[in-house]
Amino acid sequence: MNILIYVIATLAGLFLSYVGVVFAMLSGREFAYIIGGLLAAAHIGTFVFVRRKAIQGKGREFAFVLALPIFIVLAAVQVFVLGRYVLLRAWPDSPEFTAECQTAGARYFKLPASPARSIAYEWPNRYGNSQNYLTVSHSTRIDHLDRRDLPYPAVIEFTEYSYLVNSNVASPRKYIHKPRQGTAYSISTLSADVLVGYEVTPVEELEKAARDQGMVKYELTVTDRRDGEKLASLKYVVDAKAKRACGLTGNNVMDERAFVLKAIGAK
User: Fold this and answer.
1) pLDDT digits (tens, 9 = 90+) for 147-183
2) How far, in Å, are 11, 18, 26, 185 from residue 23 at the CA level?
3) What's the whole-model pTM score?
4) Phi, psi of 231, deg, nearest 5
5) Do 63 and 217 contact (CB within 8 A), yes or no?
6) 46/74 Cα distance (integer angstroms)
7) Do 117 and 250 meet the contact criterion of CB atoms below 8 Å apart?
8) Please, what's the b/e burial string for 171-185 (b: 16 or more CB within 10 A of its CB; e: otherwise)?
9) Which residues share a beta bridge with 133?
10) Interval 104-155: pLDDT, tens
11) Cis amide prior to 202 (ω within 30 degrees)
């Protein structure tokens, strides 16, 4: 009977660990390997612990510990994640980041001479920004970072996008025309009233996963293509890895879309 209790607890622990590894695979094989290693160590640790208690004559009372490795690992991961989050928020900004932030922010020079009915975006890479919206707290600590593609106001009849065919900066560009209603299609050149140009430094960082990108400087220029007048500019800096950002367009928020619409008088 005593052995049966240990066997049941061990099998329960192994099953729960198996389920944990399966779910960990959803976050990538590397993460699953880490979780698997931690679970193996937890199983060894619980076995040693219960064996010692059995020698002391208390094995049955502590047999349930053999089913706990998954919970031990989950608790350890939570403590690690929380500790890392607290450390990142408490850690001071780097001197390089602080220096770039001195000149970050939005500038509005003038409104278009006539209403703008269309907007073109010229990206410096293959896919465009992985994010165009973020919120911060405590000045520069990122709370939320993502990409938002919300509908434009009714006055905007269409948008266009220009981007590189591949990651080579010398590669040809592809142009997409997206009407307010209907299906997007390829075009040979841009025709929109307003152009939003991007300068990204270093552009190579955009090839990484969004959360792994180091410090990236984004400089946007809004130009009226009809008369060549510069309407507005925006510089913002994002260090996704360190969870830092500056160059806001509103109260604790950086919103590219809101910046562009304000620049053309459509907001």
Assistant:
1) 888 889 999 999 999 877 665 655 678 889 999 988 9
2) 19, 9, 5, 39
3) 0.67
4) -95, -40
5) no
6) 15
7) no
8) eeeebbbeeeeeeee
9) 146, 255
10) 999 999 999 999 999 999 987 766 667 789 999 878 989 899 888 888 999 9
11) yes
Question: What angle do helix axes 2-24 and 29-55 make, rounded to 10 degrees?
Answer: 160
Q: What is the 3-state secondary structure (H, E, C) of the chain?
A: CHHHHHHHHHHHHHHHHHHHHHHHHHHCHHHHHHHHHHHHHHHHHHHHHHHHHHHCCCHHHHHHHHHCHHHHHHHHHHHHHHHHHHHHHHCCCCHHHHHHHCCCEEEECCCCCCCCCEEEEECCCCCCCCCCEEEEECCCEEEEEECCCCCCCCCCCEEEEEEECCCCCCCCEEEEEEECCCCCEEECCCCCCEEEEEEEECHHHHHCCHHHCCEEEEEEEEEECCCCCEEEEEEEEEECCCCEEECCCECCEEEHHHHHHHHCCCC
Q: In whole angstroms, what is the distance from residue 133 CA to residue 259 CA?
A: 11
In degrees rounded to 5, what are phi and psi of residue 169?
Answer: -65, -20
Residues of the chain with pLDDT under 70: 1, 84-85, 88-90, 126-129, 165-171
Which whole-number Å values give the CA distances from 26 to 21, 35, 144, in the listed order? 9, 12, 22
Angle (nearest 5°) at CA 125 between 143 and 110:
70
What are the tokens at 95? 């001197």
Q: How far is 23 from 21, CA to CA, in rounded Å?
A: 5
Distance between CA atoms of residues 149 and 30, nearest Å: 31
